[in-house]
Every structure is written in C-alpha cells, then in structure tokens.
Amino acid sequence: MPITFIDIERQKTYRIGFFFIFLLLLYYLVAVAFAQGLFFVFPILFLKADSIFIWNSPHILIIVFVFCVVFALLHFYLSGFNAVKTVLRNIEAIPPDTNDGIHKSFVNVINEIEIVNGCSGKIKPMVIPSLSLNAIAVSDLKGDSAIAITEGLLSRLSRQQLEAVVAHESYHILSGDCLEATVATGLFGLYASMLDKLQSFGEDEKREGGLHPAFLLFWILVKLSHLLNLFISREREYRADAAAVKMTRNPVALAEALYLISNNWKGAGFIGDGLEMLCMVNPKESEIEESEGFWANLLSTHPPIEKRIKILLSIAHLTISDLENRFNVEHEKDEKEIKAEDKYYILDKNQQWQGPFHISELKEIPWFSPMTWIKRTSSNEIERASEDDALKLFFETHILYKHDKYASDLRCPLCKEPLLKIPYERTYIFRCHYCKGSLVDNDKISRILARREERFDERIALLAKAVQEDNKRAMVLRKTKGIVSGNRRLLNCPKCQNPMMRRFYSLVYLVEIDRCGLCNVTWFDNDELEILQYITEMRFS
Amino acid sequence: MIIWVVIGLFAVIILWLILIYNSIISLKNQVAGAWSQIDVQLKRRHDLIPNLISVVKDYMEFERDVLQKVTIARSGAMNASGIGEKAKKENILTEALRSLFAVMENYPVLKSNTNVLELQEELISTENKIAFSRQFYNDLVANYAIKLEKFPNNIIASLFGFKHAEYFKAEESDKVLPKYRAI
Questions:
Q1: pTM for this one?
Q2: Is there a contact between A4 and B37 if contact means CB atoms under 8 Å apart?
Q3: How much is the ipTM here?
Q4: Residue ranges of the domains in chain A?
Q5: Rounded distance, CA A372 to CA A171, Å?
Q6: Residue A466 to residues A65, A461, A531, A535, B148: CA-CA distances in angstroms?
Q7: Has domain A84-184+231-322 been given CATH number 3.30.2010.10?
Q8: How far is the alpha carbon of A115 from chain B, nearest alpha carbon, in Å?
Q9: Cβ atoms within 10 Å, residue A71
Q10: What pLDDT score does A3 carry?
Q11: Number of residue pairs across A and B with CB atoms under 8 Å?
Q12: pLDDT reported for residue A176
C-alpha cells in the first residue's frame, strides 16, 4: 500500500481503462457476429466480396471496429459521466439538513476524513431517509463523489463509529474501487432494465415467448455484466477496512459499527439490483456471502462480516465475545438507568403528598409549577421543583418554550394557538403547547423515527397497543363491511389552510395522521408521534 | 565519438539530478501545505473556545478552575511560535479541553442546551481535524525524511542544504486509545 493517499489517487485512472477495453471487445464481438449473420442472410448484398466469411474481408472488419469504438466511447461516457447523480436519485438520497444536530456532525465527520486524506477531492455527504443500516459510496468520471448513509445508521452510530464508516467508504472513493463499480453498474444497468421491460412485454404479447433476436443479445450482455462482478473482489473490502484503521487509528470503532450493522436490517429492497457492490455491507442476505472458499471468494462482492470483525478486533487484541459483552453491558446500563430514574412525590394544595410520579407524568398535572415542593423517591430531602436538575430541564422544555421567542406564525389546527418551534430528537418540530399535537415536516419524520433519544414510558406503550388494536378493528370494518367509523371533520393545514388528508401512516404502522400534500407536512395529534416512534422502535429492536 | 558519449552521459546525469531535486521540492511543499492545514484548524479552535466558555460559565459556577485552565492554555497556545513550542502548548490546551468536556458530562442541563451541543460538536470536530491533520503532516514529514536520507538523494540534499521538517509530536497520554463516548 502506498504511504500517502495522494499516491493511491494516481493509480486509479489506468485500471478503469481495462473496463473500456472489455466493453470495446464486447461490442466488437457482438458486431462481428451480427455482420456475419447479415452475410448469411443477405448474400446478394455482398456479392462483390471475395468470400462469404467476414474475416476474409479486412476492410469490413476495420469499418465495424471504428463503429464499435464510437459506440463504446459514447456508451462509456454516457454511463460513467454523471453516475453519481443517477445513483443518488435512484436511492432517493437527500442532502443533509444543516440545522439538524446529527446531520451536522455527519457533515463535520466527512470534512475530517477529507483532511486525513490530505484534502484530495471533495466528497459530498448525503442522507438516505431509510431506517435500515447501510452506507454507500459513489464516484464518477466527472470527478464527483458522494457518501450516502441511511438515517438509521446515522442515528445508531457514535461519532467515532461514524468516522470509521466514513473512512472505510472514503477509501473506496480514493482507490477508485468506487469509480469502477459505479461505471460497471452504469454500463450494464441500462441493459438490465431494458431486459426486464422486454421480458414483461414478451409475456403480454404471446405466452410462448419466442426468442426475440434483440432479447438474446441483451441476455448475453447482462450475463457478461455478472462476469464483471468478478473483478470486484472481496479483497478490496479488507483493504478498505485496513485503510480506515490507518486513517482513524481506531479498529474497535469500525468493528463495533460492523457488528451493529450485521445484526440489523441492511436495506434489502430499496437499494436496487446492481448497487450492492457500492454498499458497505451487502444488503441482501445470502449464504455465499457469509461463506468462504474458492467459489464464494470468486462470486461474491463482500467478505463475511464476521471475518472482517475478527480481523479488526485482533488489531486491538479483542475477540468477538469481548465485543458482545461490551454491547450487553451498555444495554444493561441503559436499562438500569431507566429503572434508577427517580420518581417524584409532590405536595398538592391541600398539603398532601401525591405520587410517586414519573417525570413524564408530571406534565399531565395542571397545578405542577417550579414552586411546588417535591421529594425524590431516592432521598428524603424536600426542595422546590426548580432546584432539581432534572426538573429544571423539564421546565425548560415544557414551560420555557411557551415563551414568545419560540412561537411561530403557524397556528394549531385544533385549538388555533400559535405553534411553538421546539427541539425534538436533535431536530425541530412545531408543537401546540395546549393540545400537545405536533406538526412535522415530512422529510423529518424518518429522522425522528430513526433516533432514540426520547424514552417512552408505560403509558405510551399501553396507548400504542390500544391504538393499534382500535385502528386494526376500524380498518377491518371498513374493508369488509364498508363502515367508516368516527367521522371527525378534516383539519386544515396550518401552512396553506387547505384541508389535510387523513390516513394511516402506513399499513404496518396503524397510526392516524393528517397530511397536507401541498406543503409536505404532517400533523400528529397528542401522543401520536410518540406512539409511532414507539411502534417503530419495537419493530426494529 | 567519445566526446558525444561523454556529453550524453553528462546530460543524463543532469536530468537525473533535476528529477530528484524536483521530487524533493514537491514533497517539501506538500509538507508546508499540510502544516498550514494544521494552522487553520488550530486557529479555528482558538476562535471557538471563548464562545463555549461564555455559554457554559453560567451553568458551571463551581468549575471556575477548569474554565480558567482552558483560558490560560488558550492564550499560551496563541502566543507560541515555532513548531516544537506550538505542539507543546497546543497539547496542554487539548488536555485542558478534554477535562472540560469530562466535567460537562456531569451537567445534564448542558446536554439539553442546543447551543452548547452545537458548540461542543464544533469543538470535537475541530479537535479531530487537528488530530487528523497532524497525522497527515507527520506522515508527510516521515516521507520527506526518507526521501532526504536515501542514497543518491542525500548527496543532493546536502548540496542544496535541504533540512528535515519537524514532527508535530503528540503527548504521551494521546497514545492511549481514548475511552470517552462522544455524543
């Protein structure tokens, strides 16, 4: 491996040349075969030729070759030149929001990794609004490159782990692996989709599906594109892991990140066919990926994750069981923290102690104020609510935010009070302090669902269960008997004042929401956002 | 005939010398460029610290000495000159900031203050950038040293008076893997 990353940069251009030669050969073979076919079919056209076989007439071969060069160049240019944009559009990646805490640190991490590489080439950070855990790197012939990370991964990784993941991906970009893979997908992705269309077309027209000549040609090309996968060897993943360690000097963080990803949904389904070689881990679970041996090494694009983790951990003299222990300890600690959270007794107007209440239950008590006397369950000390650190925080979020400073121009669709812009899960939402309903921009929903800073108590859990069952019943009634129950009037969008559409968030998450299609905002009634978050969390853990 | 051979040989040697000289020069400039990157990040850290302190100080009445340590270390680092001294003073500042972050962990109020969180994120990012640019710089300095000391190059290096670049050394404590969980 070269000593600095500047040196790597220089090597990548000539390797991409092989791709071009491969493409040219392919075109040439196909074209020669095609021309030969013409010879057989229309011998009259070529009566002047000396022989019926094409290889006896070199001038035709040369003409065909020139045509092939032109076509191959055009194809290469079209597929490789603007590939970053195409791929990013394909996976629906969006640029990060700079007002969002987690997105901001992602942007910072990318800048840091650029520095460790000696600032060679700008890398564009992108976010994929999906709850799955995966990362993808793309670069094209124009010199653009981007690293896209799913919302799910961003929210689950610590800063150091994120850094390791970005370092891994940035090595793929630097070494040109990415350019090769992007061009490879670009070259034949076109054909693959064409083949798909042709196949469905053929099925519609005639059931027996005779072999269309063009169909055969495409079929050969697509099969050959699978051969291209062989170029993309497993070795490069190991090399990228090694380079990531060299950049961040932290093998454990990368191992932790891989461990986390391997135990979760990797995004199969939304990451399209042919893009898996650009991903950090293969989104599709397959036996061959996780096995070794000659054929497995030859045919798969990614090495077994477990082996990658083992290699990384051995650098730090750890084993997988150490890592698992570490995760378990952290998990237990989290649980203990939840259990150890104090509850509060509070003194009511009649000088009676009430409680104990959990902090989230306090907001339901109308007479609770900073001047109320409180007592923690863990100690006997009696103090004002405003003197307690945790409660101070509580007041800041629940009372201070009623202040005009946070008020927006938008009004609550239910109670017509001004909505307050409050921080929630490291981003911002609008909430009515009176009915506690919240207005969320649609692109922020996936972020909020992916993040787990807010904790939910039993009340939300029970509510979620009840709401789910209720809505299930309502839906069954509607589908089977056509009964529409609880016909509340539609709410008006706080932004454009047009009525919002009422529907379920999805058929898996039966939470009723009101959505404005014009302004791309969603209104959640009291607790509905929390319920939706709770349901998704339960599903993904 | 012989004279042509001699001239040809001479020309080859001159060309070869020029190549070596140029490669040394380009590496030397890369080292200088890497240093300026460190400098940019150090400056940014100096600019960010007063903001953080002004926000944090209301909450952290009892941690006066920690805050003061950071302020003193900052002014010390700003007045340092020369790579060796700068490295030393900046390491003191890194140490002071690290203890400030550790103390901040004990204040849950700070953790929920978005202003503080943003500043802390900026500072952590700058810290990392300093560490990374130092890493890159030191790699280049090592390459440069190798280049100067290799056999034919060392003759040219001594001929033109090329000197080794100075490493930006890390403190002993930096060599241990940091254990803190960043936010």
A1: 0.77
A2: no
A3: 0.81
A4: 84-184+231-322, 344-398, 404-540
A5: 57
A6: 71, 9, 10, 12, 75
A7: yes
A8: 6
A9: 15
A10: 47
A11: 68
A12: 78
